[in-house]
Amino acid sequence: MRIGLAGVGRIGAFHAATLRDLLDAAVDSLVVADLDPAAAARVAGDLGIDHEPDVDRLLASGLDGLVVATATTAHADLVRASVARGLPTFCEKPVATTLAETVEVARLVRTSGVPVQVGFQRRFDAGYARAAEAVARGELGVVHLVRAATHDRTPPPAAYVPASGGIFRDCNVHDFDALRFVTGREVASACAVGGTKGEAFFAEAGDVATAAAVLTLDDGTLALVSATRYNGGGHDVRLEVHGSEGAVSAGLDDSLAFRSAEPGATFPSGPTHDSFMQRFAGAYRDELRAFIDVVAGRRASPCTVDDALEAFRIAEACERSRTEGRPVRLEEVETR
Ligand SMILES: NC(=O)c1ccc[n+]([C@@H]2O[C@H](COP(=O)([O-])OP(=O)(O)OC[C@H]3O[C@@H](n4cnc5c(N)ncnc54)[C@H](O)[C@@H]3O)[C@@H](O)[C@H]2O)c1
């Protein structure tokens, strides 16, 4: 098996190291390329893998599958090029920068029959997977409420924010996918607000530093979703499901990113997570292991472009709700 990887930045270099370890060096190969050929050469040298001088040559180098980990603006074109060659493709989220382009890519992938997996790694986190199983087996009784959170320890660089798509499309999109994955339900409406107490560059980009949304699911379940770029306690990503017979939480472990204010309480006692790489190291490995199985034809894509489109539509509804100051029904977010 020969896997290509385009884009060796922060997440791409991390995925390349993971793939190098997962592949069987005796029979498989991994080859990388980047807009910056020196970066590709450097990562290839560090990992002892191959590199190509550009993405066109990478695509033409006899691949069995492609991982797209470039900057977001290149995702849609690379997925189109990869699918046109019939290559099973892994694409980091988001699939495209706009709703219209996501709809178009989803349609193209659907009609092509080529498997494309999108990088919502929480589906591969043991806690999120266990929560989904508890709901599916009816262990929690009737689910009434879900709470989901993505709280970053520190804000991204100022230059990142204007091109990020905003906090709902950039951060909470993972919560929206997890919400669908864990509950098996669709979101019917969104009511969202944002706060700009952080550095001025969030407001200057028309974005917010902290956000909250109340979502109503199609069976009447309520979901409270939050995000902040300023969580000094650590990188805090959690999901709680509350039902008539019980409640479970993903992310409620000794590394929880806050300290109990109760006298004598010792939980949580472990070191907190500083970043998403640390928090989801196992999930990133397992999603790429799944992609190797997709390339080998052993399984279907575990997170399709249609799934990514639904998560994007929820983010779009939240952004409209926040900026227009009103509840937004999901059917307002057209997919034609
Ligand atoms: N699933 C997750 O948890 C997760 C986490 C981080 C980033 N991401 C996504 O991964 C993508 C990359 O993020 P990052 O933080 O690694 O960014 P980054 O800026 O660190 O790296 C992007 C890399 O892509 C390269 N690149 C840009 N355009 C290219 C093109 N046309 N062809 C080839 N290479 C190109 C750049 O030179 C750079 O090396 C983003 O879409 C981001 O949303 C997902």
Question: In words, what does this structure look like?
Answer:
Belongs to the Gfo/Idh/MocA family. It holds the Pfam family GFO_IDH_MocA_C. This is Gfo/Idh/MocA family oxidoreductase. The protein has 2 domains: 2-121 and 285-303, 3-Layer(aba) Sandwich (Rossmann fold), CATH 3.40.50.720; 122-279 and 311-332, Dihydrodipicolinate Reductase, domain 2, CATH 3.30.360. It starts with a strand and ends in a 7-residue tail after the last strand. A hairpin with a 4-residue loop joins strand 9 and strand 10. The chain has helices at 10-22, 37-47, 55-59, 75-84, 99-112, 126-136, 167-183, 200-204, 276-279, 281-295, 305-324, and strands at 2-6, 29-33, 50-51, 65-68, 89-91, 116-118, 143-151, 187-195, 210-217, 222-228, 236-243, 247-250, 328-329. Strands 12-11-7-10-9-8-13 form a 7-stranded mixed β-sheet. Strands 3-2-1-4-5-6 form a 6-stranded parallel β-sheet, with helices on both faces. The model has no long low-confidence stretch (mean pLDDT 96). The protein has 336 residues and is of the alpha/beta class. The protein contains 11 helices and 13 strands. Helix 1 (10-22) packs across helix 10 (281-295) and helix 7 packs across helix 11. The chain is globular and about 55 Å long. Residues 6-12, 34-36, 39, 55, 69-72, 74, 92-93, 119, 121, 276 line the site of nicotinamide-adenine-dinucleotide.
Give descriptors for this structure.
alpha/beta; Rossmann fold; single chain; Dihydrodipicolinate Reductase, domain 2; seven-stranded mixed β-sheet; 2 domains; six-stranded parallel β-sheet; 11 helices; 336 residues
